[in-house]
Specification:
- The protein has one domain.
- The longest helix has 20 residues.
- The chain is an alpha+beta fold and about 290 residues long.
- The N terminus and C terminus are likely disordered.
- The protein contains 8 helices and 12 strands.
- α3 packs antiparallel against α4.
- Helix content is about 30%, strand content about 20%.
- InterPro entries: OspF/SpvC_sf.
Amino acid sequence: MPHGVPAVRTHHPFSWQSIQKHPKLMSRLDFAGHTYEIRHANGFVKVYTVKGIAYWSFQTQYGNRFPDWKLHFSIDSQDRWAAWNILIALFIERKCEFSMKIQYGEWPPHMRGREITVYIFSYHPLAERVLIYDPASRTERPVLSAADDRPGTFWRDFVSVAESRLARAKIRPAPLAQGDLPLGRYCSLRNEAFVRVGPEWRPPSSGWAGYDQGAAELHKCQWVYPENNAGWNAARHPVPFLWGARSRWGYTVEACLPPQKRAALRRWAAMTARRADAWFRGLMLI
């Protein structure tokens, strides 16, 4: 446990035992200077801070086109809530400030392996335009800043500790999510930023995020949730916390690409970074 951080109680408002006892209670937990809340919505239990609310608003305002990195944990259905207890305790212990969720409702086959999710914030100046109401001052104020973008070492350590604690508790893993980048026995990484598709594209299943049948009938391009076969970074955003560094799992991001693409990696990275910067600069004029 990091020096100076108090221990999280075994039984706290976000443990599975507490959730089961009061399934619709909007609990709050103040810990190490942060206030965490819980919400049940659309088949998920979500734990978040005010910055998590601001992040969701930021993504929605800009059509989910900004980097949307997430850690997914794939757990056997019989062990899922035991894994939740371990991971939510780690999430709060490490003072993560955005959101973590677990799925408990109906789950489509293409989403299997993403039952537990931890959100990772990647900073962009537009995030500071999101204003959240502050009851204390009775004014709206920005809550997101560059300081909220945690370094790669933070997330690599988070995954390493999570994998260790899950294994020690004999939690059984399930197959990792299709298309994700494997980070261990339980954890994988994916950028779920929406991608642009042509008017002829059709979703693999109903209710696909971002898809509008009316727009398709008008032969318009759309921005939609990426398919699994598009891979773990379909939007081709730079990977801020893994890029160019050897990870604890024994490979570099370069090694995760198909062999035929490794030689062109640097050109690909530079090109996508330039395109992303140009697009972001355009948004700044809105």
